[in-house]
Amino acid sequence: MASVYRALDTALGRTVAVKLFRADGSASEPERQSGEIALLASLNHFALVTLFDAGTALVDGVPRTFIVMELVDGPDLRTRIEGGPLPSLDVAVMGADLAEALHYVHEQGIIHRDVKPANVLLAPSGFPGRNMHAKLADFGIARLLDETRLTATGSLLGTASYLSPEQALGGVIGAPTDVYSLGLVLLECLTGVRAYPGTAVESAMARLQRQPEIPSKLGRDWTTVLRAMTARDFADRPTAADAAGLLRALATGSSNLDAPTMLLPAEAPTATVLLPAAAPDPTLLLPAAAGADAPTELLKTDAPASTPAASIRASISPRKPSRPANPSRPVRRRVLLMVASGLTLIAVAVAALLLLNPAEAPTAVPPSYPAVDGTLGTHLQELQESVNP
């Protein structure tokens, strides 16, 4: 239907690709050519070949339609597959780009209808880690969703090996048609063989009898994606946008697509859990009665152990007396107890000395104590007399 040439744009000094349509006596050919030009002129996407110009020129006295496009300086995907299967990561990246391009095309109301390896051009990629950049070309048989078919009743347009079941049956086509064909293309990229080989009739009929064989060695993720894209039922396939998301997930951050990747959080110490502070039993702190070194005795009150948190502060605060009391009495009592404790220690020490040295007891000089007036002096005098009768 057309031949593509490498050419030089003399006006801009750039290398371009020129697609020259053959002279054809078919009445529908001029309409198809003008339709392709109009479609290309309306599209602009990084994964689509860009249209620069179009027109008609006389070639050997015969009017020929031509279009001028960007030159993709690389092989087509069919040539690349002939060299063997492609790396999984490259296929995932390429598939995501092509699916995004199809989504863009579908949003414009256009169906490509001929997605196949020969219509995918591979340009060198200047991005680190990417070997190639794919571009979808040849909208020669693409059509708008709402336009009248240019094909005769019962005839087929497309390449038999990549037809969808609805195309093979001559039924209604739509955006899922392109998704199915792209799924077969990606499967061939991964395996190096066509899913439905044979003659055009054999290939077209085979997809009506069986699902494409997807090797288990491709891994669960690839099997899931390809199985969905090549579902026989038109309605069971993902949209091009959904397919792009699935393929992008395979390509992003993964160097091994044969096994599902599980992202685990970095190992970290056990998180600290803050528990409510246990309410201590309400206690009464009694003044020391056995010397500075004696342990403080904590006496529990009759309150339950599970004191509410709100009452903890009240339980450890000084209690207010229930009736008025003489404020000087606790102080005086504390002083007396401290003095008594000190004198008791002295008495114990003296008694120990007397027991250890009985012979020297008669000659021991009684200790003298300072005179103290009042009740305290009386207690000191009684203590002295009890030690030295």
UniProtKB/TrEMBL annotation:
CDD domains: STKc_PknB_like. This is non-specific serine/threonine protein kinase. Residues 1-250 form the Protein kinase domain. Its EC number is 2.7.11.1. Keywords: ATP-binding, Kinase, Membrane, Nucleotide-binding, Serine/threonine-protein kinase, Transferase, Transmembrane, Transmembrane helix. It comes from Cryobacterium serini. One of its GO terms (molecular function) is protein serine/threonine kinase activity. InterPro entries: Kinase-like_dom_sf (IPR011009), Prot_kinase_dom (IPR000719), Ser/Thr_kinase_AS (IPR008271). Signal peptide: none annotated. The keyword Transmembrane applies. The keyword Nucleotide-binding applies. Residues 301-328 are annotated as: Disordered.
